């Protein structure tokens, strides 16, 4: 027994002391690394907390208002049979029409999304009709415009024929959507209009796109013309030469303001029939988004 202990302690005497101190050192380093890691994580979380609030919300989910919220939404039919004043729907008079509006922000892919919708022969998305100030100066002007769109009396290059099965337009958050939200929600629910919220997850890229677009507006890189949306590879390559200068002092507050705007819009319109779509989820090519 004594010999056994001796043999053991012999090893222990020789090996243990250095092992003990290195273990201690390791523990200290580990503890330090853990504490520091947690500290960094808290800082990061603080900085991106409002960002994650928006991104976690509704990812490609069709978000119907809850049953307890507002029963009126469910009593309004989704299908409509409008009677346009400017033409007769003729043989399609019994074809139902769906009403929609794409609610978005500039440089978020809504132009591309709208082109996609309009490629369907019976879908008509009439563009950014509220870019004209007179159409959104007050709520009665907005209603007049909306009534014409949903009565199929609005004419644009995207207008379809008497057999249109869905009609809508795109509406930017800075075009009266936020100012008149209460009346607009009431109108949309009364008339059975569905909303498609289209936003970008990567708000920094959106900011760069805004900068590039405004730079191109006065520099006119494309042979002296300004195009909000490029249509060829050459045009895209020319515009991609642009190197934005981001004001780092204002960066975080600018991004935060954009996030808050989106979150607020979703809250204001939470009782409408709507879905939330993110551009990055629609576009598979990561270089594009
Ligand atoms: C909509 O948002 C308001 C304000 O935050 C909230 O009180 C209400 O419960 C929300 N309604 C639904 C249906 O989520
Ligand atoms: C468009 O509407 C017409 C008339 O209802 C219908 O015959 C046709 O199949 C529709 N086209 C598509 C692609 O759904
Ligand atoms: C609303 O705006 C339209 C267009 O700017 C104007 O003609 C009309 O008088 C305004 N109505 C009210 C009630 O302010
Ligand atoms: C600009 O114009 C030239 C000559 O017409 C043409 O070759 C070139 O492709 C144009 N560039 C762009 C970016 O449109
Ligand atoms: C960034 O914006 C702030 C506030 O507007 C301004 O004072 C500052 O000069 C800007 N910085 C640059 C590099 O433009």
TrEMBL record:
Keywords: Membrane, Transmembrane, Transmembrane helix. The chain crosses the membrane at residues 23-40. This is Sulfotransferase. Signal peptide: none annotated. SUPFAM superfamilies: P-loop containing nucleoside triphosphate hydrolases. Coiled coil: none annotated.
């Amino acid at each position: 027994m004594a010999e056994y202990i001796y043999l053991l302690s012999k090893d222990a005497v020789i090996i243990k002391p250095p092992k003990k101190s290195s273990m201690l050192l390791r523990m200290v380093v580990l503890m330090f690394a853990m504490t520091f890691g947690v500290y960094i994580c808290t800082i990061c979380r603080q900085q991106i907390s409002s960002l994650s609030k928006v991104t976690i919300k509704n990812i490609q989910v069709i978000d119907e208002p809850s049953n307890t919220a507002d029963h009126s939404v469910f009593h309004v039919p989704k299908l409509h049979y409008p009677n346009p004043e400017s033409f007769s729907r003729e043989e399609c008079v019994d074809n139902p029409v769906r009403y929609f509006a794409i609610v978005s922000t500039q440089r978020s892919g809504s132009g591309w999304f709208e082109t996609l919708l309009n490629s369907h022969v019976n879908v008509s998305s009439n563009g950014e009709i509220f870019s004209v100030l007179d159409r959104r100066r007050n709520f009665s002007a907005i209603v007049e415009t909306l009534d014409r769109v949903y009565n199929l009396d609005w004419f644009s290059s995207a207008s379809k024929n008497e057999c249109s099965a869905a009609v809508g337009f795109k509406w930017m958050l800075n075009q009266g959507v936020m100012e008149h939200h209460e009346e607009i929600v009431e109108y949309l629910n009364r008339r059975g209009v569905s909303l498609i919220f289209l936003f970008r997850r990567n708000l920094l890229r959106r900011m760069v796109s805004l900068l590039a677009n405004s730079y191109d507006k006065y520099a006119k890189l494309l042979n002296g013309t300004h195009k909000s949306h490029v249509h060829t590879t050459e045009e895209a390559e020319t515009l991609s030469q642009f190197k934005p200068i981001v004001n780092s002092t204002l960066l975080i507050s600018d991004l935060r303001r954009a996030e808050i705007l989106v979150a607020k819009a979703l809250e204001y319109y939470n009782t409408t029939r709507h879905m939330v779509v993110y551009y990055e989820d629609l576009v598979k090519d990561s270089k594009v988004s």
